[in-house]
Write a structure and sequence with these properties.
Oligomer: single chain
Number of domains: 3
Strand order of the largest sheet: 1-2
Order of helices and strands: HHHHHHHHHHHEEHHH
Strand content: under 5%
Length: 291
DNA sequence: AACGTACGCAACCGCGGTAGG
DNA sequence: ACCTACCGCGGTTGCGTACGT
């Protein structure tokens, strides 16, 4: 009954990926596209489980990924989206082209959280910390704390100079929920929050109509869109003027350290390098190559 | 220079929803 | 209808490295 197990846990390698493994996985995906992750390890000659392969590809190897720190604009967008969506990292990531949920989650936990705390803003509720203190209902601000508790022990009273309310300035004042995120709210009034959010037509439209126009609108200005193997759209350049393919190509050049030309990526990217990394040309090139 | 601590990030774990058999 | 694997997601862990003493 049921399906075959995805992998026989025995003999499955764990831990950091080697360049050789990356090479195999990239080669396989570029050749065959993303299909059945269960079959990928076997077909690609990897001693990994499909889950691990998917993770490695989506979080690290995908050519449409941006590398490096989030820009100010991206960070602001993350804060705004987190105020609306809570810890729905995949939803947030869907609105930041070239960023993964894991990357955003990590950046949130290591940078943005602290930044907000320093500004006197509760990263969970996106409300001023002192407000909660006054109400005597101060929640554990680290309620969603990671295992690295020592990382989150910034003093709550720190720096109240900037009370510009990042989240609110990013447009959450049109939420009659007082910008409490729907997730991770330990106050127990989640249903009320949800109701208020659901009653906000414009917000709901923004949030749930496909992959909302929040970013799409930004992209649509200059955005070049091509299709990936699965027919999904990849944005070559977004409207925020953020780097994309130039950086990716730089990164991909680094791949040559382990022989990118050996496993077939050159057919995909070399022309672009030679053509001065024109993003428009890259879009054309990719769309034809991939299709 | 050596050591201890803090930090950042890649990867793993476990759960819930979905779908194949 | 039920069982079980697959998939995707959010939470957590652990390693490598930067930084401070």
């Amino acid at each position: 009954m049921g399906r075959q197990p995805c992998c026989d846990k025995l003999g499955v390698k764990k831990g950091p990926w080697t360049a050789e493994e990356d090479k195999k996985l990239i080669n396989f995906i570029l050749t065959n596209g993303q299909c059945c992750w269960r079959a990928v390890p076997k077909l690609a000659g990897l001693r990994r489980c499909g889950k691990s392969c998917r993770l490695r590809w989506t979080n690290y190897l995908r050519p449409d990924l941006k590398r490096g720190l989030l820009t100010e604009a991206e960070e602001q967008l993350v804060i705004d989206l987190h105020a609306r969506l809570g810890n729905r990292w995949s939803k947030i990531a869907a609105r930041l082209p070239g960023r993964t949920d894991n990357e955003i989650k990590n950046h949130w936990n290591t940078h943005i959280k602290k930044k907000l705390l320093r500004m006197g803003i509760d990263p969970v509720t996106h409300e001023p910390l002192h407000k909660e203190d006054q109400l005597g209902c101060s929640k554990e601000t680290n309620s969603s704390s990671s295992s690295h508790d020592h990382k989150n022990n910034l003093p709550d009273h720190q720096s109240t100079n900037d009370h510009s309310m990042v989240a609110n300035s990013a447009g959450s004042e049109d939420m009659n929920s007082s910008s409490s995120p729907p997730e991770n709210s330990s106050s127990g009034d989640e249903s009320t929050l949800l109701d208020s959010i659901c009653n906000d037509e414009s917000l709901m439209k923004n949030l749930w109509v496909d992959e909302t126009p929040l970013i799409d609108a930004l992209w649509s200005n200059n955005g070049q869109v091509v299709a990936d193997h699965g027919g999904n759209e990849i944005n070559i350049e977004n409207g925020m003027g953020l780097q994309t393919w130039e950086d990716n190509c730089a990164w991909l050049l680094d791949c040559q350290d382990f022989g990118v030309h050996d496993f077939g990526m050159d057919y995909c990217f070399n022309d672009v390098e030679l053509n001065g990394l024109s993003t428009l040309e890259m879009g054309d090139k990719l769309s034809t190559t991939i299709n």
